[in-house]
Target: Rhodanese
Amino acid sequence: MTNKLVDNIIPQQPPIDSQSDVHVVKSRLEWGEPAFTILDVRDRNAFNQGHIMGAMPFPQDELVDRAGSIAKTRDIYVYGENDEQTAQAAQQLRSAGFVHVSELKGGLAAWKAVGGPTEGIIESRTPAGADDYNVVARLKNHAETQQKG
Model:
């Protein structure tokens, strides 16, 4: 017997798209929606340096073996080093019988660009949205700091 009251209050999620924009996942996180998993298929070192907050490390060479612990019907968002690796990983999961797999387009870089929360060694030293690799801005900040002294 199903609980009609709960069914009316909590709408069923539509199936996720085969490719998702980072905004979709970010809004699901912000709304506290349950029942989805984010998998990072990059190597362990890249994951440790920085990843989407809450993402689980599933290096691509171990992906299908490790994914056995996840329900086949769960919504899974996957990302890798680039969109090609992401697409390969998503295909591996689909071939293994996972039915709700979505490639997170742009991966970690796109996630950071929209201010999505991150964690990891580098991320802990970097304010949200700051770009460690923007040398011009860093030199300008350094010059301004030197002038004040």
Remarks:
- Residues 42 and 80 are 5 Å apart (CA to CA).
- Helices lie at 4-9, 22-30, 44-49, 63-66, 83-95, 107-113, 135-148.
- Residues 129-133 have pLDDT under 50 and may be disordered.
